[in-house]
Each structure stands twice: as structure tokens, then as C-alpha cells.
């Protein structure tokens, strides 16, 4: 269920699913078969000195902990009226686009200021007002002009995105309806469906000794609801 999302919190290596079957002979002569589903750290197995964590973790406790965290996330979302969620989702996307656009404008203006300053120094070098190497100034100016083209393009793209975000109510409706559907069906969904939902909500999951689990959300409930951003946990 967590394939591709799970990492060793000790070495950062991706944890992989593994099925382990053990045969043990009992005192009465019969053989008992033990089946275990695990998430293994193959760096720990192949290179023990580079990882001080366990070589494997029981799948059940990790899956259960992540499922509970995801269900709690979805429950927090599902109690909010649909229209409020649509508005909040839109506000968040617009806020994100606005921040990106403002930063791109700032980068453009700063790069333009540096080009103007270099051109002024070049004029002073030509008239003998300073002793700076004109070749160095011209080289720096060319680099800044190339950067100006790049930041101008980024500014145009971020402006287009901002305009699009302000006019995508339908997209927000679809996003919210999908989230509410997850909230109502997640608990009884198949492993494949749960994996799909978790992959949409979670960036990565780290596991350390004693099953210390840290979930890094793509977006926390607070961020989705337009509240103060919090560190992923």
C-alpha cells in the first residue's frame, strides 16, 4: 500500500515490500509455516555500516498508522461545508500563485537594476571616471541580460498562472468533490485505491527504530483550509 512512499529514517534509502516465509518444525514433528509481510531497508542488509536502523519492519503497524493519519486528515476536511471548501481551496491556490508572481516581479526588477548599474559603470570606464576593466563589466552585463530574459519569462508564466487560478472555480469544485469522496470511501477501499489516495496526499513517509513514523504531507489540513502553514509531521 505504501510502495514508493516509504523511506528508512536512518539512512534515507527507500523501503521495499518483502514477503517472508519461515518453516519451523514443532515438538510433535509437524511443520508450521509463518508468513510475514515486511518493508525492508536493503542498504542495511547489503551495507550495514551505512545504516544503523533495522533491516525490516512489519508491514501491518506501519500501514495501520498511516491509514489512521490519512483518515484523520480526511475527517477534518469532510466536516467543512462543500461550498466553504471550494472557496478555501481557491483562496489557497490564488495565494500561492500571488506569492510566486510577486517573487518573479521582484527578481525581474532586481536583475534590471543590476544591468542598469553595470551600464552606468561601463560609461564611467569609457570616460575614465573609474578604472574598472571594461571587458569584465561587459561580461557581467551579458550574463545579467541572459538572466533577465529567464526571469522575464518566469514572470510571464507566473502571471498567466495567477490569472488562471483566479478563474478556475470548476477545477476547485472537482478537487473538493474528489477529496470528499475519498473521505467517505477510504476506510473500506482496496489497497490499490488507498495507495492512490495516499500518494495524492503524502510526499514521503519515514520510519525509524521502534516504528517512529514521520509523514511528510503534500499539503497539511491547515494549508488546505488556508490557515497558517505548519511543519510536516
Explain how this protein is built.
- This protein has seven helices and six strands, in the order βββαβαααααββα.
- The protein has helices spanning 42-46, 59-78, 82-127, 134-165, 169-185, 191-201, 221-224, and strands spanning 6-8, 16-25, 31-40, 56-58, 202-208, 212-217.
- The longest helix is centred in the middle third of the chain and has 46 residues, at 82-127.
- The strands form two sheets. A three-stranded mixed β-sheet has the order 1-5-6. It has a three-stranded antiparallel β-sheet with strand order 2-3-4.
- With 233 residues, it is α+β, with helices and mostly antiparallel strands.
Radius of gyration based on Cα positions: 27 Å
Mean pLDDT: 82
> What percentage of residues falls in helices of 4 or more residues?
55-70%
Secondary structure: number of strands: 6
- Structural class, please? alpha+beta
Distance between the termini: 20 Å
Secondary-structure element pattern, one letter each: EEEHEHHHHHEEH
Tally of contiguous helical segments:
7
Biggest sheet overview? 3 strands, mixed
Low confidence ranges: 226-233
Spatial sequence of strands, sheet with the most strands: 1-5-6
**Portion in strands:** 15-25%
Shape: flat
Condensed summary:
The chain is α+β, with helices and mostly antiparallel strands and 233 residues long. 58% of the residues lie in helices and 17% in strands.
